[in-house]
Design a protein that fits this description.
Length: 430
């Protein structure tokens, strides 16, 4: 028969093999062609059999060109900033697929002329927040606040309580963000106390608006005093309320968290909020409120630079209109159900020879929202050293380490991912 290496398939023949052709379409022909050449050389060197060349090609190719990886969130933080905050609902994911094609995002099909961008998402927000006369969407919560400052207070003053000049994620600070827009800050009160008279004394002809910032990532307790949106609305200037976390209406499990509907009902002229936190949608910044002011924001030149794409608009619309989001479902999880899930997982692991126990613990909302709120939860405790193996496994699992144990908190993890969690732990042990 001679040397089998003489019968190594030609490059074009391998590239036309259905599975290789599909990979070339997905990853690019040149990338796959390089993998073919490498597999052919391995066959010539005797490292693989001739009949294994195609399998050798496929083994060297990734399933996707995407570097992002799916992570199992067993940290006990529902909105983990480093994990992208809110996971999207199945309906929102399907909307992304539709929007990825050719759509009427800015076309009026009835007239054939240019239409208002994102009309569906804007209508959904107005319906969900009946106290809002108008809505506008930008690319994140900080952008929403920056747009308000630029359009309403450039070269003017923003009156804000000193205790509300907070720092948000990655070292970004509200006062620096506002100053970058050309507005001047007029701080009132002290770190822990501010009164309505402080605001009233600071307001003058240069006042653009009064800003009320919800300190969503920390709590000041003790000898404190703050001024409500309702009281601020008595002042003869616009009131912008940055509620941060994105609740559109009150939530029974988060009674202290502000929401857009209530803030506007209490007299705020504009409310700014994030879409990827408690709303459970894509990263976006929402501006809701007085029609005239929102239109000023929409027509400001900066609004163009902060415009969101069709994917965000599609996911946001379906999130607002659709059924419960994964974030909403996680908030509603019952402690007893979480405990039963943890017991079942611990039993499976113990049956496989892995030391595991059921642990009562608490989860957090995260994402810069609901500070101090503890959600009763349950976790599976395994050996501390498994935390790194789990984090670097496939799929990666983000747990937390407490008191010498690696805790797999189930509050942020959907029940349908329990099987994947068990497999990941067994793989980490091996």
């Amino acid at each position: 028969m001679g040397d089998p290496r003489r019968h190594i398939p030609a490059t074009d023949r391998i590239l036309n093999e259905p599975r290789v052709a599909e990979a070339a379409e997905r990853l690019g022909r040149e990338r796959v062609k390089q993998a073919v050449h490498e597999a052919q050389q391995r066959a010539r060197d005797g490292e693989i059999a001739v009949q294994e060349v195609v399998e050798g090609v496929l083994a060297e190719l990734p399933e996707s060109t995407l570097s992002l990886r799916r992570v199992l969130n067993a940290s006990g933080v529902l909105l983990h900033t480093n994990l992208g905050r809110a996971p999207l609902s199945g309906a929102a994911v399907r909307a992304l697929t539709t929007a990825a094609g050719t759509t009427d995002v800015e076309l009026d099909l009835e007239t054939g002329h240019r239409g208002r961008r994102g009309t569906g998402a804007l209508a959904a927000l107005r319906e969900a927040v009946p106290t809002a006369q108008a809505a506008h969407v930008v690319n994140n919560g900080a952008a929403a606040l920056a747009l308000a400052a630029t359009a309403l207070a450039a070269d003017r003053e923003i009156v804000v309580a000193r205790g509300e000049l907070v720092e948000i994620g990655d070292g970004f600070r509200i006062p620096e963000l506002l100053a970058s827009t050309g507005a001047r800050l007029r701080e009132v009160g002290t770190t822990n106390r501010v009164h309505l008279s402080d605001y009233r004394d600071a307001i003058g002809p240069d006042t653009g608006f009064v800003l009320k910032v919800h300190p969503s990532n920390f709590v000041i307790s003790g000898f404190t005093s703050a001024v409500s949106v309702a009281a601020l609305s008595e002042l003869d200037v616009p009131v912008v309320a940055d509620i941060g976390s994105g609740l559109l209406s009150p939530h029974p499990r988060l009674p202290a968290e502000p929401d857009a509907t209530t803030a506007l009902a209490e007299g705020a002229d504009v409310v700014t909020a994030s879409g990827d936190k408690l709303l459970g949608g894509p990263q976006a910044g929402m501006l809701l409120g007085d029609a005239e002011l929102v239109e000023r924001l929409r027509r400001d030149p900066l609004a163009r630079a902060l415009r969101v794409d069709k994917l965000t608009l599609a996911a946001l619309e379906v999130t607002v209109r659709g059924p419960s989001t994964p974030t909403g479902q996680a908030l509603e999880r019952d402690e007893r159900q979480l405990w039963h899930r943890a017991e079942r997982i611990a039993e499976i692991l113990a049956g496989a020879g892995v030391a595991a126990e059921t642990v009562s613990t608490t989860a957090a909302v995260g994402g810069g929202g609901a500070p101090g709120v503890e959600l009763p939860s349950a976790a599976v405790g395994v050996a501390e050293h498994l935390a790194k193996q789990l984090r670097t496994g496939d799929p990666p699992v983000l747990a937390r380490v407490e008191q010498g144990r690696c805790l797999l908190d189930l509050h942020a993890l959907p029940p349908e991912e329990d099987t994947d969690l068990v497999r990941a732990v067994l793989s980490a042990v091996r």
